[in-house]
Amino acid sequence: MLQVCLNGARSRSEDRWVPVTPGELAAEAARAVEAGAEDVHLHPRGADGLDSLEPRAVAGAVGAVRAAVPEGVRVGVTTGAWAVPDPERRIALIRSWTVLPDHASVNWHEEGAEAVADALLERGIGVEAGVWSDTDGARRFRTWPSAHRVLRVLVEVTDTDPATAASTATALLRELGDGLAAPLLLHGEDGGAWPVLRAAAGLGLATRIGLEDVRTLPDGSTAEGNAHLVRTAREILEEHRGRPKP
Question: Is CATH 1.10.10.10 the classification given to domain 2-240?
Answer without folding.
Answer: no
